[in-house]
Design goal:
The protein has 15 helices and no strands. The chain is an all-alpha fold. It has a single domain, classed as Ribonucleotide Reductase, subunit A, CATH 1.10.620.20. It comes from Streptomyces apricus.
Length: 322
């Protein structure tokens, strides 16, 4: 476990993140050329075909489909991810507002988190606008998640370490998927490409904050409280990963994806299993650093199939030699 993060250093890092939000920020309806013909959602545009960075895009069943089918499924996949992303960002904003409501004066977290909430507002706008432009009428996350998300923001003040763990559980998979698509070298439609560029740039700060928040607090917890979080941590990671990454089977069936394919992709296939392990290399590093890895929690990480080598540094690209 690394040395404790001091409050002074924590505050300095938050000031740096806040200045970053001032100096580099985006507006959903200024920085995306929604009405540019190049950004139009054309059902005949092959750039909507999913890249191999997406476990569905890498699956043999998908690759065997006609170009028309792969485009249709690609548009649907982007729309579903965007809708779930919008819902998750909405939950984040409400929980962050709940958390900062009780902060004292001169707390650096207030300024940083209000910057983050502002940025997330623009993210929800661009995600929803993408959904609207595709014409895909998706409900987004599974019903149980949509219902539970009405009360989950209360954890922002009632159980903040679990809440910000949940934030990481949602942000890390989306960030991984987006970076993978951009790094794949395969064609990506310019509309989701631009959205991903903006989201990755600003989300880096949001992920940094959640890491620093947990680094400050968790090492100071007593044995019981830290032990409880060590078990909750992988459970929250896997649960919210599934919410974000796995599409509803009924919705998938409407675009012609058989239930067995959804089951195989998430997470039985070789590519799916690999992605599941890769998604959380950064948070495995964090869990090691802040004392959340122990004999019992390691078994849980393994049982949930999200164990593996921790990243050596944040954002380390995952390389496979096979």
């Amino acid at each position: 476990m690394t040395a404790h993060l001091t409050r002074k250093l924590y505050d300095e890092r938050l000031r740096t993140l806040s200045e970053g939000s001032v100096n580099v920020n985006f507006n959903a309806f200024v920085d995306i050329k929604w009405d540019d013909p190049e950004f139009a959602v054309d059902p005949d545009d092959p750039r909507w075909v999913l890249t191999s960075a997406d476990a569905l895009g890498a699956h043999p069943w998908y690759r065997e489909q006609s170009l028309e089918a792969r485009i249709r499924i690609g548009i649907w996949r982007w729309a579903v991810i965007a809708k779930v992303g919008m819902q998750f960002e909405n939950l984040l904003m409400r929980g962050a507002l709940d958390y900062i409501y009780q902060l004292g004066n001169r707390n650096e977290e207030f300024r940083y988190l209000t910057h983050e909430i502002t940025e997330e507002t623009h993210h929800t706008q661009m995600f929803q606008e993408l959904v609207n432009r595709t014409g895909v009428d998706t409900a987004g996350g599974k019903r149980w998640f949509r219902q539970l998300s009405r009360i989950l923001p209360l954890a922002g003040s009632l159980y903040p370490e679990a809440f910000f763990t949940g934030i990481l559980a949602g942000e890390e998979p989306i960030d991984h998927l987006q970076k993978g698509a951009l790094r794949s070298g395969e064609p990506v439609h310019p509309l989701p490409q631009r959205i991903m560029q903006i989201h990755i740039a600003e989300e880096a700060r949001h992920i940094s904050f959640a890491h620093e928040f947990l680094r400050l607090r968790v090492p100071r917890f007593g044995k019981v409280r830290r032990g409880a979080l060590s078990l909750l941590f992988p459970l929250i990671m896997r649960t919210l990963c599934d919410v974000i990454m796995i599409p509803d089977r009924k919705s998938a069936a409407q675009v012609g994806i058989p239930a067995w394919v959804v089951k195989d992709v998430f997470w039985k296939s070789e590519a799916g299993q690999r992605m599941l392990h890769d998604l959380f290399s950064d948070v495995r590093m964090l869990a090691e650093d802040i004392g959340l890895m122990n004999k019992v929690s390691r078994l849980l990480w393994k049982a949930l199939r999200i164990d593996g080598r921790p990243a050596r540094f944040r954002g380390e690209p995952v390389l496979h030699t096979d």
